[in-house]
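Risk mitigation, structural track. In case the binding assays with zinc ion fail to produce interpretable data, a predicted complex structure has been prepared as a fallback.
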Amino acid sequence: MSDGSSFYITTPIFYVNDVPHIGHAYTEVAADVIARWHRQAGDDTWFLTGTDEHGQKILRTATANGVTPQQWADKLVAEAWEPLLETIDISNDDFIRTTQERHEKNVQRFLQKLYDDGHIYTGDYEGYYCVGCEEYKQLTDLVDGTGEYAGQLVCAIHSKPVELLKERNYFFRMSAFGQRLLDLYESRPDFVQPDSVRNEIIQFVKHGLTDLSISRQTFDWGIKVPWDESHVIYVWFDALLNYITAVGYGEDDEQFARRWPATHIVGKDIARFHAVIWPAMLMAAGLDVPTQVYGHGWLLVGGEKMSKSKLTGIAPEQITDTFGSDAFRYYFLRAITFGQDGSFSWEDLSARYQAELANGFGNLASRVVAMVNRYFDGRIPEAAELTDSDQRIRDTEQQATARADAAIERLAVHEAIAAVWQLVDELNGYITEQEPWALAKQPENAARLATVLHTAVHGVGTLAILLAPVLPKATAKLWSALGREDAVDAQPIRSAHEWEAVGRVTALEALFPRIEVEAAS
Ligand SMILES: [Zn+2]
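Fallback model:
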């Protein structure tokens, strides 16, 4: 049922300065589930992630570690960022690094075009600069420092002092795009989501846009301004362009036309870069603006935003080593309403693992497969006449498929999983109610037993198809136990409920084994 339409989705490219924590992994799994869903639906899907490797902060860290910034970036990519994708089972189609030639060359091409078309001028800039954010701050973005920084103004995000900088810079005439941006938000209410982020962006732009300083002369770790090599390009201006340089901007028009525009999944703290600066840059270049900018909420641990600098960073392997990547993916997308802030706790994670994955879904799958083995020697029986109870399961399969797909269209990943979980719950209730183990003792009910187990197998197979984007490893095992030699993620997801349950099942080990959890924090 696919029209094969293009679906291009991105995560932010991650700053290589530090090592990944579960906040980064959360963004990755959200984008990954959406990408896998579209891919499984037959859409012409492209999922991009990568790393942001320029800027003063990287230069300082590399210097402090006695290596060049390129060596530092290479090390972090190889030892931290690429392994992260493996750890949480990310299915990206491409990985862009801003130090790659395909990026650097075409960033220069983009900037040259803006310069030639009169969108760039020279000026002096003086302002408060946060090295952590790599941006100039307005006074309203600063707060009074506490502790060792008492008496100084500090960045509200990093809680560290800002620097007063004065530079002769190149400026992008962003102020010229204020009205066009407001018109964009008005005519396409979905352009920025969720509404809380959209409202904040609209207020920000209504307040009036200033021009953007887009070059730096005080350090040299960056892409050189093509007409003045004594300047490097501002790291955010450079980084945002990855979304188009990765899909052929400037050198492969066919690829670019096929992929662009993209849906951007970002944390709400960087929504302003993506929903204001980035579309203004694209408008200036005469290119399409993104399909959508979605600013998800923060992960909170003990009430504080997850970040390494606040020492609340938890490495994703701390979770996956015990619970596995499927449980990681499921937990963060199920427990947190996508778009809102959400709290992580080890207690909640282990409670949901046990109740929802092990007992709810895993046990259901094991029981159904075991009963087919026990009562039908492994052969999936054909259904006789359907009762209302059987029909209700078939209806729920269809509704779960439709509702989950509609939720994914709105990027409401948590709702998609909840819609599928209704089928998990109903199937568990159905088996309790129908008591196939009792029917098996009554030879006169042989046809009824066949119908019940056929219905149950069908429901479980539909679950495998619908949950493949979230639980790729468990659903692959289940699909194979249902006797299928093809791949579960090759089954058309928008018609998941239409698969045919025939053939023989094999054995199925526990999908989510019992875990003895010690206080793991
Ligand atoms: Zn900052």
